[in-house]
Amino acid sequence: MHDTAHDLAVQITALQKWYGAFHVLKDISLSVSRGARIVICGPSGSGKSTLIRCLNGLENYQQGTVILGGTRLGDNARDTSLARRQTGMVFQNFNLFPHLTVLSNCTLALRRVGGMARGEAESLALHHLERVRIPEQAYKYPAQLSGGQQQRVAIARALCMNPRLMLFDEPTSALDPEMIKEVLEVMTGLAHDGMTMICVTHEMGFAREVADEVVFMDQGSIVEQAAPATFFSTPNHPRARSFLNTLLH
Amino acid sequence: MSILDIWLGILEGFRVTAGITIYGLLFAIPFGLVFGVAQYLATGFVRFVVTSVIEFWRSSAVIILLFVFYYALPVIGVTLSAMTVGAMVLGLNIGGYASQAVRAGLQALDRGQKEAGQALGLSRPTILLRIELPQALVAMSPTFINHIIQLVKATSLVSLITLTDMTFRAKEISQIAYEPVPIYLSLLMAYFVACYPIALFGRWVERRVNPVREARNGI
């Protein structure tokens, strides 16, 4: 447990992925230490979401390796379930289960995967709903909540499984501007608690404030990787510069 | 012959009509569920087999299947009671339709539902049973009610394989009394009276099983 490999939450080496003839991920290598906050940005279609979906087996890849928490993931059911036990994921469209109450959304996996008794699962779920500041919505259905509240439930649902790594796939892109703030506040709170996070987001204010490192992707490659201060003040690559310009205007 | 006599005469066939419907549902519901889910999940050869079975029951003429199973199978030594043949043929035919409703309901779900389950570490069966099927079945409930009503009406065909259902009774009475107009009008009404409560039941079920939509309307 003392060698440096174990201080890495994620190590991606030479990852290659094709959708048929389309080369989505081109030779991606990225290391994320425990407790690090990584923001991945880039134009749409650059492969950002695909990359983080490779980390919990929602996408497969053809070449390269992913080492998660010291274990190299193979393309088999055992490794995939191992990866999913270690990671929590928050989606752009929340993907809450509409037929279940907020509380049941949070307890389903605790009970079915964790084998936890109902009472225990519910009190744990309520704890995490408090953490995202909506315990009072526990008995409502997702459709009764605002988008921002739904996304916070989705974060609480992921936290319930006690992940070592949180993956955020454009968590605020489907939200109205006034709701983005409440979600980003929850994410900032998580970052301050020391959670390892990889966030695909266009929220550059969040990146500036919270990220240790900004990764800029374009056309399936990592084009630039730097601390936020450097990335925002003196981006190296012309494509990163033009991307930042389009965001600012 | 008074209208009351006609009604009482037709009513004597109600037990068979109701019996075939209920017995038929015992074939239709499991077949629709299992084969709909199987078609949704299976790939390759298994999917081909599943699809072939569904297509056989869905795309064959019911009346011919009734004759084949009732009159032709005994030739090769398989004798089934008229009740069983009627329930099985009608049930599996409706079950074939229902299987497509189940599959459509599952396919129509947002892909994110399955992915959210996977990301939480849920197994495939758990995702199917706890996330996908409950939503698909609720969405499909109006279609299922449709199929049950269709089954009730289709039971009139069993009069052709010797069963004394409402239609068979109406034919008998009209041969005795020769008053086809009031008798067949009464028969028409009898099927309506049998089916309409099912439609009402369907609406009630829809309200009951859809807390989400109700909740949304409540705001």
Alpha carbon gyration radius of chain B = 21 Å
What is the tally of helical segments of chain B?
A: 10
Q: What is the end-to-end distance of chain B?
A: 57 Å
CATH superfamily (homologous) name of one domain in chain B: MetI-like
Q: Could you report the average pLDDT of chain B, rounded to the nearest whole number?
A: 92
The side-by-side strand order for the widest beta sheet of chain A comes to 6-7-8-3-9-10
Task: Describe what you observe in this structure.
The complex is a heterodimer of chains A (249) and B (219). By secondary structure, chain A is of the alpha/beta class. Chain A is built from nine helices and ten strands. Chain A has helices spanning 48-55, 77-86, 102-112, 118-131, 147-160, 177-192, 204-210, 228-233, 238-248, and strands at 8-19, 22-33, 37-41, 63-68, 71-72, 87-90, 165-169, 196-200, 213-218, 221-226. Chain A has a six-stranded mixed β-sheet, with helices on both faces. A four-stranded antiparallel β-sheet of chain A has the order 2-1-4-5, covered by helices on one side. The mean pLDDT of chain A is 92. Chain B has 219 residues and is mainly alpha-helical. In chain B, α5 (82-108) packs across α7 and α8 runs antiparallel to α9 (180-209). The longest helix of chain B has 31 residues, at 124-154. The model of chain B has no long low-confidence stretch (mean pLDDT 92). The interface between A and B is medium-sized, with 29 and 23 residues.
